[in-house]
User: What shape does this take?
Amino acid sequence: MNQMTLAVAGFAMIVVFMYLIMSKKMSAMNALILIPIVTALALGFHDAKLGKMMMDGVRRVAPTGIMICFAILYFGTMIDAGLFDPIIERILKAVHGDPVKVCVGTALLATLISLDGDGSTTYLVTCTAMFGVHRRIGINPLILPSLALLENSVMNIIPWGGPTGRVLASLHLEASQVFTPLIPGMVLGTLFVFGLAYFWGKRERARLGVIEFSHDGSHHSVSEDPDAEKLKRPEKFWINAVLTIVLLAALMVELLPLAILFIIGTALALMINYKTKEQGARIVANGANAMPVVSLIFA
Assistant: This one.
């Protein structure tokens, strides 16, 4: 079969795939699985060869799928243990009524929560924690979601964030090949967002002035679990923080493959924070967040 036929079939497959997804006639996972199979059979690939091609594809994307799965489990465990909660409290206490501090604090919070790799969590936590402060001061209501969106757009290129994972799977690349060269760009992008937050804050300060008030001390939890308070491990904040910093440093210097680092990190995080029976419950709870992304990678 010539390359032109394969190319035309490939583009046709993408068009059909996008139509079915956008018209909501098929889910993304089902479309990714079934449309390529139908296309391959229509092109005359027999069962034995087709099966071998599919298994080769699964083997190639396995490291990416494993890395994303355990990254989500790791950060989900840290959220459950309350790693980010004291940081939120400190930010809220530090900003007082200064629009500049509020805007920069919003950008900082969005940066930290974006490490989870789940955009919805970033928006939910950032907006929930900072909305009351923004509204009380009278800051332009567009600034809060804009800062969360901008910073999450920068941080969402982490390998376990979803889009980058799909790029790795489709191009058959290792995470370090794509992610490591992007780190300087992520740093510059984050600095730009902080600069923009400072600029917007200065503009709002000129308009509103500084409104002094104290943080009401209400607790802000990142976890969405109804039993979140029972899962908190505030006494283990520092060991969790050190573990996360060491893990991120190991990722940047490529000490080990990313998948292996997150496997080890997840095992340590679960062992440090929860007893054996509780570990299984945490895996089940956070696995629900991992499955939609991982299933698309393997599909």
About this structure: The two ends are 25 Å apart (CA to CA). The mean pLDDT is 82.
